[in-house]
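Supplementary Note 2. Why include the ligand at all?

Several targets in our set were suspected to adopt different conformations when bound, so apo predictions alone were not considered sufficient. For every target with a known small-molecule partner we therefore ran a joint prediction. The input for glutathione is given below.
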Amino acid sequence: MDEKVRIFAYLPSPRVWKSLITAKLGNVEVKVLGDKPKNLVDWLWDFDAKKLSNQDKDNLKHFERQGKRGFEGSLYKTDKFLKTQPFGTVPAGFNNDGSIGIFESNSIMRAVARNSTDATLYGDNDLYLQSRIDSFLDANLVFSREFQVYVLELKSLNDQFYDRMKAAYSFYMGGIENALSKDEFISGPHLTIADVSFACDVAQFLRERDRQVLIKEKGYDIVSKNFEEDFPRSCEHLLKLYKKDEFQEFMKGFLDGILS
Ligand SMILES: N[C@@H](CCC(=O)N[C@@H](CS)C(=O)NCC(=O)O)C(=O)O
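The joint prediction is reproduced in token form.
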């Protein structure tokens, strides 16, 4: 199979799993390059991403940039990378020759789904069904952006961050719970990328349960404390997706000890 989408990212990453699970479900060839989060400071951020030696780094001072979101210190991003990836973030997606950059994990996942012959993954070629899936993906991004800030700020948690996170969580999960009271999957009778995105981001969010000691120390309860009781359909749906082979291939063990 030909490479359809390339992704450079830190690994493992639920944001990358969105594309990899979609690739499995839709039989699409996706190439992934990357390394552990802490090692990305030693990588050239580029379509042809590669590990750098100290000597390489000395020769590439002109590509040295300050990390902006989630990374402290220097990152080596090529000019071409920043041209194709204007926000300079990972995961960074590309078409097969690197001439087009695709950013935001939901959009990289959409590019994978659009390459699949299985149209059910992304709205069955119906522009309104596709737009409905996009609606869920937008709602999902608002939620995931909120929890990105929450996780990055956990050590200095205050009422404002906590209340914002709680509100974003209740709003997103409330919508998903309603959707699942009507349909078997989030956006209708078939599994779509709205389900994939939900599973990856909510699973990652639930990992706040690993940090409960710190959250308690700051004087708060974990936001997802009553997830199972408050959002039973969503919980059941998450577990159903999680158990599927295509999800297990990447997510295996991720929710062990996290969900009851
Ligand atoms: N909403 C984005 C989040 C991407 C993002 O914020 N990535 C951060 C790392 S978590 C990044 O690449 N930061 C680069 C920097 O600090 O310069 C997505 O889902 O892809």
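DSSP finds eleven helices and eight strands in the chain. Residues 15, 67-71, 75, 88-91, 104-105, 145 surround glutathione (CB under 6 Å). Comparable summaries for the other entries are listed in the accompanying table.
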